[in-house]
TrEMBL record, chain A:
Cofactor needs: [4Fe-4S] cluster
Reactions this protein catalyses: a quinone + NADH + 5 H(+)(in) = a quinol + NAD(+) + 4 H(+)(out)
Binding positions for [4Fe-4S] cluster 1 per the UniProt entry: C59, C62, C65, C108
Membrane disposition: Peripheral membrane protein
Annotated InterPro entries: 4Fe4S_Fe-S-bd, 4Fe4S_Fe_S_CS, NADH_quinone_OxRdtase_chainI
Top-level enzyme category: translocase
Gene, per the UniProt record: nuoI
UniProt source species: Halomonas cupida
A GO cellular component annotation in the UniProt record: plasma membrane
Coiled-coil regions listed in the entry: none
GO terms under biological process: aerobic respiration
Cofactor: how and how many bound: Binds 2 [4Fe-4S] clusters per subunit.
Protein family (similarity comment): Belongs to the complex I 23 kDa subunit family.
Name this protein carries in UniProt: NADH-quinone oxidoreductase subunit I
Automatic annotation (TrEMBL), chain B:
Cofactor note: Binds 1 [2Fe-2S] cluster per subunit.
Secretion signal, residue range per the UniProt entry: none
Catalytic reactions on record: a quinone + NADH + 5 H(+)(in) = a quinol + NAD(+) + 4 H(+)(out)
Source organism of this protein record: Halomonas cupida
Name listed for the protein in its UniProt record: NADH-quinone oxidoreductase
Domain 4Fe-4S His(Cys)3-ligated-type residue range list: 83-122
UniProt subunit comment: Composed of 13 different subunits. Subunits NuoCD, E, F, and G constitute the peripheral sector of the complex.
Domain 2Fe-2S ferredoxin-type, residue spans: 1-83
Superkingdom, taxonomy of origin: Bacteria
Taxonomic lineage of the native organism: Bacteria, Pseudomonadati, Pseudomonadota, Gammaproteobacteria, Oceanospirillales
4Fe-4S Mo/W bis-MGD-type domain span: 221-277
Keywords: 2Fe-2S, 4Fe-4S, Iron, Iron-sulfur, Metal-binding, NAD, Quinone, Translocase, Ubiquinone
Keyword NAD: yes
Similarity annotation: Belongs to the complex I 75 kDa subunit family.
PROSITE patterns: 2FE2S_FER_2, 4FE4S_HC3, 4FE4S_MOW_BIS_MGD, COMPLEX1_75K_1, COMPLEX1_75K_2, COMPLEX1_75K_3
Amino acid sequence: MFWNVIKGTVSQLRTLGMIFMHSFRKRETQNYPEDPVYLPPRYRGRIVLTRDPDGEERCVACNLCAVVCPVACISLQKGEQEDGRWYPEFFRINFSRCIYCGMCEEACPTSAIQLTPDFEMGEYRRQELVYEKQDLLIDGPGKDHDYHFYKVAGMAIAGKDKGRAQNEEPPIDVKTLLP
Amino acid sequence: MATIHVDGQSYDVDGADNLLSACLSLGLDVPYFCWHPAMGSVGACRQCAVKQYKDADDTRGMLVMSCMTPAADDSRISISDAEAREFRASVIEWLMINHPHDCPVCEEGGHCHLQDMTVMTGHDRRRYRFRKRTHRNQELGPFIAHEMNRCITCYRCVRFYRDYAGGTDLGAFGANSNIYFGRHQDGVLESAFSGNLTEVCPTGVFTDKTHSERYTRKWDLQFAPSICHQCASGCNISPGERYGDIRRIENRYHGEVNRFFLCDRGRFGYGYVNRSDRPLRPEWRSDRNDTAVTLEVDAALGRGADLLRTSRRVIGIGSPRASLESNHQLRELVGEDNFSTGIAAQELACLTAMNALNRNCGLPTPTLRDVEDHDAVLVLGEDLIASAARAGLAVRQAVTARRTELAAERDIPSWNDEAVRTLGQDSYHPLYIAYPIATGLDDISAGSWTLAPADIARLGFAVAHAIDAEAPVVEDLDESTRREAETIAKRLLAARRPLVIGGGSLGSPVVIEAAGSVARALSRRTRQGSLLLVRGEANSTGLTMLGGESLEWALDELDGAHADAVVVLENDLYQRAPREQVDAVLERADAVIVLDHQRTATWQHADLGLPAAAFSEADGTLVSLEGRAQRFFQVFDPRYIRPETRIHESWRWLHALRADMLRQDTGEITFDAVTRACAEHYPELHDMLGSSPSADYRVRGLKLAREPHRYSGRTAMRAHLDVSEPRASQDVDSPFTFSMEGYNGFDRPREEVAFAWAPGWNSPQAWNKFTDEVGGHLSAGDPGVRLLHPCPGQYDYFVALPERFTPRDSAWQVVVLPRLFGGEETSSRATPIIERAAPVTLRLSVDDAQRLGCSDGDLLSVVTDSGRTNLPVQLDAVLPVGLVGIPAGVEPGLISGDWAELKAEATNHHQGQIMGQRDDETGGRP
């Protein structure tokens, strides 16, 4: 009994001491938001739609991001520009469902959809977390500076004729007899 | 039967098959491109290579193309052999060296056979470092988009288009690296079956242009089993919906009806259900000239019930484009004595005659697949390509099957397509056609005559007499016609299975009776033949079985003030009766209630308009021309995406209206209950109960899924309206769910398949997994129930033979000619069909035109008792003198058989009016 009282008192004093010593330790918590958080460039945060180096929308509305999304929070509709490019007529992400897994970015064949180092998306009303295309589209190419889908793909658009894509011969002449 | 050994396993297969189709029938996955179940093998793509061993001791084996190798008894093959796999992977790699890296912007992506095969063979890295071949595309009209870069030169397109469907304007040009599949120049693809190129092409060279504008991947579409409403053939379709619009019609395999192919009207004529001017809410007009106000459902039902209660007698006008259930509910609402079918008297007489003949002519009605198994065909008064195009395609197969017969004599298997075709050349089974103008099947006919309707009937009766001497003699028949009739009779009698085709296209009951007489004569000579009678609209057959008075009767009752209220069900009266008459009747009626899914001219005259569901939003049963009752299922719930809509099935509206009128509790009504009531009410329709599974049908306790399991965007597609997703719409009427939850597989056979998907098979080729054997029947049996059966008995010949047709000096006999594009009420409201439709012209024989002193393009007015119509003239070299051909769907006042005067029209103003009206109708979404 007496031994237990000694042991308990020492333990209490030791704890008090340890807690007191924490006053001199380096602070672990961060003074957010006064001190900004460092996020690595590949952090998977808020999703954006980027533009190609010419400043045109990169998204071709292929629907791969939507189908790969495990929570089905992306929905879009294909449209076609005057010049023959495919583009999303609307592009909607329900961020109140998004789990920031980054599968959409992996699936995107044109580097259009990218996750960015930004998690500051708090809203009082859930409805505000539904982002439309104008909320998602940014002005630059994001992480992928050079990729330009239509310069690679064989589909002709205004200003890029058949045979002008990467590694393409000029269009064949059906009527020639030469081998 | 043969036993083959595949990778050490023994299987029993059909020895007449090739190895590829035998393996696919067994459910084994062998990659292929150029082979198609309906078109046989040519061995062009080299993709289906397997290892074949001579005997049990052979360990080396050799590579063979499985599509070109017979499934001989005791064959030993290996699909998984390393060398065979490597060979197949190489073939894909070669095929892909020119493929343009554009899957993200390709309308085939997601249901692409080339994608499937590439994944199946395992090719995933490009090694070829050199340049890709490119091509220029062609403009192929409003239906088909062309992207030649994607071609893998399998030749399926031209084999389908030319050899199967008889088209002439698509071909293979150039050779080796210069090869090109297209037309000789830009232009509209002429074939009525061009849409099948989108499914036949294993990649994205030919894609659906009507879908492209608002394209959605196959995995994002919500499907349901449906029936094409654009003619009476009863083809099975899978409409795909996204965001509240129908985006595409896919072929739904039915082993007895359409199998792999649809016609273009059925595939591309769906646009009317997407029109932006469709009524979405009940509309009320206190005064006919007021603009309409929209009402809520209860208010609309209340006012409708008031209208009906206060009226003395209510006439119900049904519709052959509405389901049996809707027509039945209308008949329940107004009573049996007040129900009209909404079909004009002349057509109704034809339909009644056809239903009677199907029962008592002695010959059965063939299914469309069965049509292909006949070896002599006589067509009286039908241009099948215009009136029931899919049936026309089946007749073409029947006629070209002569090649297969010749091949069988020389032991060439029927699947060896190139050999069969080379041997057959232009040998056909006999096909005889009598029609006022040239028809789409003339190119393979042994004889075709352009005759007036009365003369077509006389030719038919002469054939009947030549077959059976007891059939009445045709008086004052000229010698050449008699000889021709005898030739036809001889060929029909010589055939194993003769087929007689007639129908109501020309609106002439005697032509139908003539076809019936030939059939009866054949059956008396105990020939195993068939009689196919072509009806006009999707549910013409069913509505005739249900019974009811003609449209004229209904109009007369209203006009004579014997009734003061009318309920019109999915029927535009202005398309079926002269404008003045309908105007007068609707003006006179105290209450007009219209249910429709289109803003028709009749709708604009309604006191109360109730927005009905189109085929994509409703459940219902139709009876096709072969007497098959088939169920179409609701594809999507319009309120889910557009909550403001108040669209309901007509039968539901009518049920609620009746309950309100009788001041009963509306209660919940289900489709099954209506179908049961309908089947019990009409003895002829009793068997329709078996046409679809009831709402409590389950597969392993699961409902059936309408959406593919990859369906995307469920938590975002409605998020702009409300971020909290509502519960998925519930379907009390069918075993399907509006969700991807539910069964969608192929291993538990079921009749109703919303869409075909199997692991590794995203393209339409996945149907091979759902059939008992490749190109056979669905594993669970083909859906639908046949209602028209021949009744044995002694029936007499039709004796009131018509007089010979004699042209008159100052009058012309009107023949209304069906048109594939534009001739049908609903599809002619779809933009692509309007673009594709030929200009509306009046056909006149060259002699008559000379007599009238007019030439191509001149405006003539057709004057009959019912009014005056101005149309530009088109000279027809073969149309008989004394006839004037009017395209269907132009002026309902002009009825086949009427006599009209033709007068030259000086000005062009009326034509402008017609065209202007057409332009209005193109409004809205495609």
